[in-house]
Design a protein that fits this description.
alpha+beta; Beta-galactosidase, Chain A, domain 5; nine-stranded antiparallel beta sheet; eight-stranded antiparallel beta sheet; elongated
């Protein structure tokens, strides 16, 4: 069956910190940092705390950072008209504006983070500049002296500083002197707060956002040397914790790989603009991350849909890679990150062949171990379902194993999704061996996510021919069978891109798949019943599209259950006009 949304309330979404019961699984320094920030938060909320942030008010910028990334003009137009579409939720003329009662947590984070200034800039014109100035001025008037734990949280405050500085030329350069001075004074106040709050026990990409804000402010303001030095020191300590030896980000999300690399490119640019030497560790990290981002690209240039990722536009990914200024071909194997790329002819196959990220970094992790995606040329054929950025009901459903192109045992997730958004039971051992002979590629993988409950290990073997026209797989459940009760069933799922047409053969043992430009592929299987079912695709951020999935089902047998399948290219069946 297709993944279904749950009935969770998005306005009650938990914060990024897991519950106390999870602290025992977190690194010691992260636990101490979170406890320390928890002690500080009541002090930040005291009425006199804003006075402690007062200090010299800068009247100019030492350098003006430039945000080079494109916005969405349609979103900018809607903002001018009072419609705010953030994190998959649309609110018109929200009341009260900075804390609407029906707004989700992610919606409010985007509102207070001001990334939407890009959209106003993309729309352009005086109306957009006025709207930007009015909203920034309103935020300062409402929030500068009123504590709001979300608005002043380090990740949100860091993003706000980055966007205020990165769009200064757009909305502030033509403003009155009084507005510019008030804005710069407020930027300095928030930088003082960030310097006190950090490191706050943050981890993963959430830890980099406030560091970026502190470093950009330090490089941009004439007297920001202390903030710059502190931010760079924290960044030096943080990057080795997040970037693995092969260049992959520890959260194992292609979307996060893109965002973190983009943040580091921005930091390099602002240091250049401020005539600050770029640390060697920053340049090295950019050079490590770019090839892994290329690994995640399908033939259309967009990203694969593992672990809370959307596909993004190919030109957007290419823009990040171009600005990274790191030449080279995509990596084919990222063993520490746990991803593999098989590429032959026009076919690309991407496989999640690694364990989920560790505790404290698993809020974006999906239960999709050993899932794969496949594209032919610029067309996607086999996909995972993706992720909805703001709708928590869909977001949880898409994290289930059933939302991925892999095997599901008895409708149980290979990693258990806890109520606080983290993972509990998960695969402890994920094995991957890669071979190549005369251009033919093999992957031999396995995971033990079903061992504790069912006594079974999932083995997946995938072969791609040198021509790229023949993809074969074998999925095997193997174990003692002592925990299998006799009624368990497996489902091996192949989610199809919405543009793929599928027809079940009369014999019932194969499915003909047609790509939009006429390429035909036939999926055959032995050892399971073949059927077509409905599915959903959330590859484009904020969009939910119906699609189909091929499902291979059957009973679990002891000591082993084996299903063999093959995807082979056939002659063109239809030409797109």
């Amino acid at each position: 069956m297709a993944p279904q949304p749950t009935t969770e309330n998005p306005t009650k979404e938990r914060d990024v910190l897991p519950g106390l019961e999870r602290f025992g699984l977190l690194p010691r320094d992260q636990v101490l940092g979170r406890l320390g920030y928890a002690v500080k938060r009541p002090l930040f909320a005291l009425p006199l705390y804003p006075l402690s942030l007062s200090g010299p008010g800068p009247t100019r910028l030492n350098c003006t950072p430039t945000d080079p990334w494109p916005g969405n003009a349609e979103v900018g137009s809607a903002i001018i008209e009072g419609r705010f579409a953030f994190a998959g939720q649309v609110l018109s003329n929200p009341v009260p504006f900075w804390a609407p009662r029906n707004a989700g947590v992610r919606w409010r984070r985007e509102l207070h983070g001001f990334s939407w200034l890009r959209d106003l800039r993309a729309f352009g014109g005086d109306a957009a500049r006025r709207a930007a100035r009015e909203l920034v001025g309103a935020w300062i008037e409402r929030n500068a002296t009123a504590w709001d734990s979300l608005a002043w949280s380090p990740p949100v405050a860091g993003r706000r500083l980055c966007h205020w500085l990165g769009h200064f030329e757009f909305f502030a350069a033509s403003a009155s002197i009084e507005f510019r001075h008030r804005l710069l004074y407020e930027i300095a106040r928030q930088a003082r707060h960030l310097a006190r709050a950090l490191p706050a026990g943050l981890a993963g990409a959430e830890a980099l956002a406030p560091l970026k804000g502190l470093i950009m402010t330090g490089a941009s303001l004439p007297d920001g040397g202390a903030w710059l030095e502190r931010g760079l020191e924290l960044l030096r300590r943080e990057l080795p914790r997040q970037i693995m030896a092969d260049g992959g980000h520890i959260e194992r999300s292609p979307s996060q790989q893109l965002e973190v690399l983009r943040d580091l490119i921005d930091l390099r640019a602002v240091l250049h603009a401020g005539e600050v030497p770029v640390p060697a560790y920053l340049q090295t990290t950019i050079e490590q991350m770019a090839p892994v981002l290329r690994l995640f690209q399908h033939g259309d240039g967009g990203l694969t849909l593992f672990n809370d990722s959307n596909q993004a536009e190919g030109w957007q990914v290419d823009m990040v890679l171009q600005r990274a200024a790191v030449r080279g071909r995509p990596m084919m194997s990222a063993p520490q990150s746990g991803f593999q790329r098989l590429q032959a002819g026009r076919t690309v196959v991407l496989i999640d062949a690694g364990p989920p990220p560790p505790a404290g970094l698993d809020l974006r992790a999906h239960a999709g171990t050993l899932s794969f995606e496949m594209s032919v040329g610029r067309e996607r054929l086999i996909v995972n379902c993706g992720a909805h950025p703001g709708d928590t009901s869909w977001r949880r459903a898409q994290r289930h194993t059933a939302a991925h192109s892999t095997l599901v045992l008895d409708d149980v997730n290979s990693s258990e999704l806890a109520r606080d958004g983290t993972l509990r039971r998960r695969p402890q051992t994920v094995v991957c061996r890669r071979e190549e002979t005369d251009g033919n590629l093999w992957l031999d993988t396995s995971h033990d996510g079903y061992l504790r409950r069912f006594g079974q290990i999932h083995h997946r073997r995938i072969y791609l021919s040198a021509s790229g026209d023949d993809l074969r797989g074998e999925d095997r459940l193997q174990g003692t069978g002592s925990k299998v009760g006799g009624g368990e069933r497996f489902a091996l799922r192949f989610h199809l891109h919405p543009e793929v047409q599928a027809n079940l053969a009369k014999s019932g043992d194969s499915v003909l798949l047609r790509l939009p430009r006429g390429g035909g592929w036939r999926l055959r299987a032995t050892g399971a019943a073949v059927s077509l079912e409905e599915s959903v695709y959330l590859g484009q951020a904020g969009e939910t599209t119906r699609c189909l999935q091929v499902v291979l089902t059957g009973p679990v047998q002891a000591p082993a259950t084996t299903v063999k399948w093959a995807l082979r290219h056939e002659a063109k069946t239809r030409t797109k006009p």
